[in-house]
Design goal:
16% strand; alpha+beta; 5 helices; 4-stranded mixed sheet
Length: 100
């Protein structure tokens, strides 16, 4: 995985205010149709994993897994984050290619 590249891009998306972090906020953006991609930490709880993956499936939003919550938080310059939703098409498409 091109770790540094996707983390840098996510940081850039954060500075451009094109992401939202947190489970409830991400679910809200998925429902509103604004989320273009959801990043979920591999160490998320079973409850959170099920909730987010079910929402993504029902609203056809791509879901990608990353190593852990600390890496996800570090990428956006915050503490540990379990869920991050990307709200911009361009950032989402590029992140999908980097995370594949």
């Amino acid at each position: 995985m091109k770790q540094n590249q996707w983390m840098s891009l996510l940081g850039l998306a954060n500075r451009a205010r094109k992401i939202i972090s947190g489970e409830e906020l991400a679910v809200k953006e998925i429902r509103n149709g604004k989320a273009k991609l959801v990043l979920l930490a591999a160490d998320a709880s079973d409850n959170t994993t099920k909730k987010i993956s079910d929402k993504c499936n029902s609203y056809q939003v791509p879901l990608k897994r990353v190593e852990d919550r600390y890496l996800l938080g570090q990428a956006i310059g915050k503490e540990a984050r379990v869920v991050v939703a990307v709200l911009d098409d361009g950032f989402a498409k590029k992140l999908v290619t980097l995370l594949d």
